[in-house]
Amino acid sequence: MEKTLVLLKPSCVDRGLIGEVVNRLEKKGLIICGMKMIQLDEKILREHYAHLVDRPFFPVLAAGMMATPVVAMCLKGLDAVEVVRKLTGSTNGRKADPGTIRGDLSMSGSQNIIHASDSPENAEIEIKRFFRPEEIFDYMPAYLKFLYSEDEL
Ligand code: UDP
Ligand code: MG
């Protein structure tokens, strides 16, 4: 089953929205296979946001991402990367569709609650960036046969 990486950003942690976001991901049927709180630093952020390091807003983004600890999650499901990106919504919370996590919970293009991997290739890299192998638990929930039909599994 496909895995993806989520970070609940300081804008989520500080505003007391961890439960709200985890609840949405759980209710959708994504299987939580890793979850922990960590403090990010400049080194890991330069790696994680390598595509943005040269942009003028990077210092503000990095400071925002270090303002509190974040919650890192590894989620599992069929097409998990695409499903979580859809739930997340577009980057700017003011423009994101209502019903999405960013569209419902954020007013910012930077302090936008959640990071979600954008491709299966990046998800693999990002899971390794934030989790040691023994921190990922490959269990299947008892309700699996009610989450998917037999021919989907
Ligand atoms: N970001 C920002 N200003 C911008 C674009 C992005 O502060 O103009 C931040 C924002 O927090 C975003 C993150 O950088 O979530 C990563 O940007 P990306 O383009 O990868 O967007 P995402 O994949 O998070 O939607
Ligand atoms: Mg991105």
Indicate the CATH class.
Alpha Beta
Order of helices and strands: EHHEHHEHHEHH
Strand element count: 4
CATH architecture: 2-Layer Sandwich
Cα shape: globular
Overall helicity: 25-40%
CATH superfamily: Nucleoside diphosphate kinase-like domain
Could you give a short account of the major beta sheet? 4 strands, antiparallel
Which ions and ligands are bound to the chains?
uridine-5'-diphosphate, magnesium ion
Number of domains: 1
Poorly predicted runs are: none
Secondary structure category:
alpha+beta
Question: Can you list the strand order of the major beta sheet?
Answer: 2-3-1-4
Oligomeric composition of the shown chains: single chain
Q: List the total number of helices.
A: 8
Amount of beta strand: 15-25%
| CATH topology heading | Alpha-Beta Plaits
Radius of gyration: 15 Å
What number is the mean pLDDT? Answer: 98
Distance between the termini: 9 Å
Observed structural traits:
39% helix, Alpha-Beta Plaits, binds uridine-5'-diphosphate, 4-stranded antiparallel beta sheet, binds magnesium ion, 8 helices, alpha+beta
Q: Explain this structure to me?
A:
With 153 residues, this protein is an alpha+beta fold. It has a single domain, classed as Alpha-Beta Plaits (2-Layer Sandwich). Helix content is 39%, strand content 17%. The chain contains eight helices and four strands. It has helices spanning 10-13, 18-28, 42-48, 58-65, 80-88, 101-105, 120-130, 144-147, and strands spanning 2-8, 31-38, 70-77, 114-116. It has a four-stranded antiparallel beta sheet. The longest helix has 11 residues, at 18-28. The radius of gyration is 15 Å and the shape is globular. It binds uridine-5'-diphosphate and magnesium ion. Uridine-5'-diphosphate is lined by residues 52, 57, 61, 91, 109-110, 112, 115, 118.
